[in-house]
Amino acid sequence: MDQISDISLFAQVVASGNLSAAARDLGLSTAAISKRLIRLEERLGIQLLTRTTRGASPTEEGSAFYERCVHILGDIEEAEAEISGCELNPTGTLKVIAPIAFGRRHIALHVPEFLARYPKIHLDLRLSAQSVDFVSNQCDVWIRIGEPEDSRLVARKIAPNRRIVCASPLYLERHGEPQTVQDLKHHNCLIIDRPNTRAEQWHFIGPNGPETVRVSGNLRSNDGEVIQRSALAGIGIAVKSTWDAGTLLQDDMLRQILHPYEPPTSNIYAISLQSRHRAGRVSAFIDFLLEKFGSAPYWESPAKPG
Amino acid sequence: MDQISDISLFAQVVASGNLSAAARDLGLSTAAISKRLIRLEERLGIQLLTRTTRGASPTEEGSAFYERCVHILGDIEEAEAEISGCELNPTGTLKVIAPIAFGRRHIALHVPEFLARYPKIHLDLRLSAQSVDFVSNQCDVWIRIGEPEDSRLVARKIAPNRRIVCASPLYLERHGEPQTVQDLKHHNCLIIDRPNTRAEQWHFIGPNGPETVRVSGNLRSNDGEVIQRSALAGIGIAVKSTWDAGTLLQDDMLRQILHPYEPPTSNIYAISLQSRHRAGRVSAFIDFLLEKFGSAPYWESPAKPG
DNA sequence: TGTAATTACGGGATACGTAAAGATG
DNA sequence: CATCTTTACGTATCCCGTAATTACA
Fold this sequence. Notes:
The structure is a homodimer of 306-residue chains. Chain A is α/β, with parallel strands linked by helices and 306 residues long. Chain A folds into 3 domains: 2-83, Arc Repressor Mutant, subunit A, CATH 1.10.10.10; 87-161 and 266-292, Periplasmic binding protein-like II (D-Maltodextrin-Binding Protein, domain 2), CATH 3.40.190; 163-257, D-Maltodextrin-Binding Protein, domain 2 (3-Layer(aba) Sandwich). Chain A is 42% helix and 24% strand. Chain A is built from 11 helices and 14 strands. In chain A, α2 packs across α3. Chain A is rod-shaped, with a radius of gyration of 32 Å. Residues 302-306 of chain A have low confidence and may be disordered. At the A-B interface, α1, α3 and α4 of A face α1, α3 and α4 of B. Chain A binds a DNA duplex (25 and 25 nucleotides) through residues 2, 18-20, 28-36, 38, 51-56, 152.
């Protein structure tokens, strides 16, 4: 039944030299020590200790058994320490799924530092536009832009997904810059089409509260890259995330327009399976992302109007 | 607290593939399995199994831990099997204390066979006339002729200590053979002097019940060897144990007299410390002695009157 | 709808401590 | 006489099982 508990107790008795000392060391009564030792000897069918009034000394069998006990107890402690120490020194394979653009642009950027910091972690970074089934995919962390749904999943916000309206200098030169939200109706708006959203409804938050405009244009796509390239080519006006368009704005290849009107900010989440005890590598990765993106994402500074 | 019990349970769950199967295999309820697994994960601070509706599969940490668990459980089983198997294949050092004459004549005679039968036993056979303190002497078995006293000791009769009255042919030729017990009063009786006995009172059991005679003589000793040599030399009449005088009677160097009157038979005992579980080598030795001496000691046959 | 895991709850085994007794130097 | 071990006994803990709940295919 309670094998190791008795074995551990026996080892302590041998180490302490007598039952009373072991009782003190273990914080038990001598009666408990005595009874459990007797039980152990009953179970093994052999006497382990010779008791005298001066103390208890192991029999020959007891000595041999003690050696093995010490070894076993050490193994157990080592095993438990190793498994418990996984939080401090994360180990194992970490599978991360991220959107393609965000993964390439921002996750991959920090991968070397992450791997250097946690040398025992093997990172499997998969970029995919697909939704994720954690169990079948053996996925540890899913980076997702926008709100999560599943209750079994726990989502941690790692960065704001600030979006802006922008167009290329060429477009603005040719068609003029819209001055109000409603002006967008008369422009060629590049529509990014995501599931479960009304792609033509562009929402804004401005100094006077929310405002909505129904836009139209000659290009619609489900791929941000297509929209971005078209915007760069001067085809029309696009809504872009700052993490995505930041360097383009900095290089003046795209210009933010309608400032200070911006679409409502959503968030970027690191999503993991809810569990009582997260694997160390998962926590390590999510904490790492927070460290890099969390407070004030580095891609905001050049994009901020000034 | 109950480390290994949970570890063993976890290993069984991994082996079984899901909690329900493990519950069946272990004869427990799934509720118990679940709770104890959760407790183990709490204690380790890490999730070991990912539960789905199809079963439970180990996490990466769980797999690593499982490997160690299998190893540890094997070590425990091995250790316990070895210690419990000591009865079947006795091991270790066996310290035996025996009277000098009996040890030389009868124990030593069988030592080679004993050692051949139990090759893993190391025998330490100490011949001594002294009384024995088991604890300080680290003695396992004490061979003693006559009744034991100590309640902490357990005595097993291994042979009868039959005694006879005898004298050398020379003595009988010179002084005649006594025909009755009371005739001994007129003979030179060699008195063996043991502690706590009235050495001059010789007791007999005969066809008409017990009989006692107070004898006297010109030699008294506490050493049987002295008495025996004196008897052989024709000095007088002696009481000898059959195990001691057997061959001398056979060779007609001593002759039993007063047959069928003999001193009351005492016993030869193998004495060991009382303990719930005797070490295998102790049982092996005592059983071996019983096998050799127990039913009808081989030294009786030549001594029996015929 | 059926199987698997978890949670809630009540009962029973068990392991502890206190206290007394036995043993030993 | 002091110390150590064992036994006796009452109590509290905890551990399991039954049953209900939730999740998933």
